[in-house]
Amino acid sequence: SPGALILVAPGAYNESVIMWKPVRLQGAGAGSTFINAVKRPVESLVAWRTKMDCLFGIGAGCTQVVSALPNQPDGAVGFETEEGAAITVVGIHDPGTGQSPANSFLRRGPSRIDGFSITGGDVGGGIFVNGYADRLEIANNHVFGNNGSYHGGIRIGRPYLELTADDQNPPNGRFEFNTMVTIHHNAITQNGGLGGAGGGLSIATGTDGYNVSHNFVCGNFTTGDGGGIGHLGLSDGGVIANNRIVFNQTFNQATTVSGGGLFIAGEPAAAGLTFGAGSVTVDANLIQGNHAGAGHGGGIRTQFVNGLDISNANVNSWHNVTLTNNMIVNNVAGWSGAGVSLQDTVRSLIANNTIVHNDSTATVAATFTSGNPNLSVNQPAGIAAEPHSPALTAAIPNPPQFNAVRDFSNPRLSNNIVWQNRSFHYEVDTSVVPAAAGLVPSLSQTTVGECLPGATYWDLGVLGGGFTLNPVFSVLTDTTGYDASNTSGNPDLVKPYCNGGRTLASTPGAMAALPALDEGGNAWIDVRFGPLVTAWNANDPSGPAWDHHIGAGSSGLDNGTATGAPDHDFDGDARPQGGAVDRGADEVSQAATTPGTVAFNSSGAFGNVVFLTTETRTIIATVSGGPVTFVSSTNPAAPFAKTADTCSGTTVTAGGTCTFTVTYTQPLFPVTNNGSFTVTSNATGSPQTVNLSGTGVRQVAFTSATAPGTLFSAPGGGALIFGNQSGLVTSTLTVTVEGSAPVTFGTLSVNNSFGTAFSKGADTCSGATLSGGGTCTVTVNFDAPTNNSFRGATLTASHNGTNSVTQTLYLLGQ
Hints:
Layout: E1 5-7, E2 11-14, E3 17-19, E4 24-26, E5 33-36, H1 43-55, E6 87-89, E7 111-114, E8 117-119, E9 127-129, E10 136-139, E11 142-144, E12 147-148, E13 154-156, E14 182-184, E15 187-189, E16 192-193, E17 201-204, E18 211-213, E19 216-218, E20 221-222, E21 229-232, E22 238-241, E23 244-246, E24 249-250, E25 262-265, E26 280-283, E27 286-288, E28 291-292, E29 300-303, E30 321-324, E31 327-329, E32 332-333, E33 340-343, E34 348-351, E35 354-356, E36 359-360, E37 383-385, H2 390-395, H3 403-406, E38 412-414, E39 417-419, E40 422-423, E41 425-429, E42 436-440, E43 460-462, E44 471-472, E45 475-476, E46 493-495, E47 512-517, E48 523-528, E49 547-550, H4 590-593, E50 597-600, E51 605-610, E52 614-624, E53 628-633, E54 640-645, E55 651-652, E56 657-665, E57 672-681, E58 688-697, E59 700-705, E60 710-714, E61 717-721, E62 728-737, E63 743-744, E64 749-754, E65 758-763, E66 769-770, E67 775-783, E68 791-797, E69 807-813
Parallel strand pairs: 1-4, 2-5, 3-6, 4-7, 5-8, 6-9, 7-10, 8-11, 9-13, 10-14, 11-15, 12-16, 13-17, 14-18, 15-19, 16-20, 17-21, 18-22, 19-23, 20-24, 21-25, 22-26, 23-27, 24-28, 25-29, 26-30, 27-31, 28-32, 29-33, 30-34, 31-35, 32-36, 33-37, 34-38, 35-39, 36-40, 37-43, 38-44, 39-45, 51-58, ...
Antiparallel strand pairs: 41-42, 46-49, 47-48, 50-52, 52-56, 53-55, 53-57, 54-56, 57-58, 59-62, 60-61, 62-67, 63-66, 64-68, 65-67, 68-69
């Protein structure tokens, strides 16, 4: 009976279920209860067709208990492209007035499909909901390995019904074939579709007021539009929120298909204007690593959103697409708008999204230079818009307030981070044999996720030229030509990455873009990229995850505009949490912005440094108490110099460190030098001064002498003066290694300049090896002349110390 709870025990069930009453179909959990739509025995498909006919009143003894959609034939013949789905849901039309039908999904009881693994659908996909399954809930299922003509995993409604305005019931701008359907907490993975929209999840015309939330949509493929999720046709008031839409693909070598992750579109009209898509809110989704290989919108594509709704001069009744709080990252498009692409979308808001590191490859036929199949033209990569179709432009009312949206899809853009979205082109180099082909620039990664210099960034653009998007209060790679409220400062993303080669086991290299041929001889370009993982670390492949939240040093912190900003962020945290909203999908919490402290080690003290040499010190900055964003550091004055800085421009978490490398080059002076440099950050006590000091010393020095000699020490040696003496006298010199490195002496020798009065006596230095601070002695003999005349000589001490400077001591006496 309607509303009944049907408990399905754990196990594997090879069948195709038909659900035609509003019941609660409850499995024991996606890991325990399996429905496999395998058609064995073949008679099972015949039984399915017979049962479907009977539900429509076809066959002996059958009473019609379900309704067909407009222009859909009754019975199994109306399901030729959907027959035998793992679960098929059919309902009876309830106009919502008067006595409701006995099996009305709208008013007779709750309905649910919950707790199953669903696989094996080969024509009708995993779950197919035809019509009038109002308020149906699909939750906590794993839908995988299904295929269908117009969808793969789950589909609500039917596309291409060739509807007219007369089919609307009630006539309020909605078809209302499946209203208030809720799809949440499902894993929809590795399904495939051949057309329509949505390889993983498909929302077709009349699915008004739907809510798709907290689903994991991964690895789905379609040769139609919308690799992950597809919304096709007029379904008003839909919400797509808090989903992870990752690594899905749409591709077709014969035609343009778009929306690698998410596709929102009205059905194209045979003539004139489309009904449009309805209003849709897309909020707080992770849209990552999806691929629109043969079209636009690697992450999100909107098209034919507006049409007949524009005939109403009340702009508030026009369909509106709202994109807020989404992280749209690392998606790839063969044409334009690897992040977001818009066409025939008159009314839209794109606010507080993080749209970074998306790549447009210009590898579809339309991007190639006319007459030159070996060279394509770069396309906008972050957000791309297109001129309206002529019919839509003509339908937009004349008053001047509509001028901004008259000619092209011109969304309101505010508080976004649109950062380093790369634009490539394809080029064949015929000057080498064999010819070399690939994406230009070729950015060959040496590590997984590495972001390399030399990329061409194109964050915002309108195809065909002549029009310009108008972002405000956003973080852009380049703000040239845009409103002064934008900034090109570093957004300080926690752990972003860039696309490159697909392998994880070795050096990834560059994205691959190779020509390919199908069995019919048709050529296309096969683009392959990676990493296709949600987390990667070379030392720990299981984590941490890529992370596009912002740090406390983001240039978009507390400086956005309240206009158009949502009251929450990607994580559901309240917005704002500071003086103003943050830019991008993430609102940094007040706790996260509490500044930490920075302590520097004492290695700025160089100690004794040998004359004319350079020594290097690494100064470690240790963070505690909270994350610290380092902004900049000054350069110290000579003889000090800063040669490396791993701190500035980074955010370091509590317990982490970064470093500054400083050198001290000692001039030929026995003095102490002092210096400093300043570090600016958001830490408590910033700016902070790091003090530097160093003292010049000789590598080897004569440091003392016994009487009667008097020592005058100097950098090159100095002098030992005996004065007036009578007869033979001696003085013992102490030789000291003042530098820190060990020194080995050669032979110390005395060389007389005037006469032969000086000679060397006892010597513990020659041939000796002394460590830093070590000493040895040498005795100098002076045999004073009887006539009291002046005598001179030199004592030389060679060594292998720094610069190998021989110390020369002048010997004087009379």
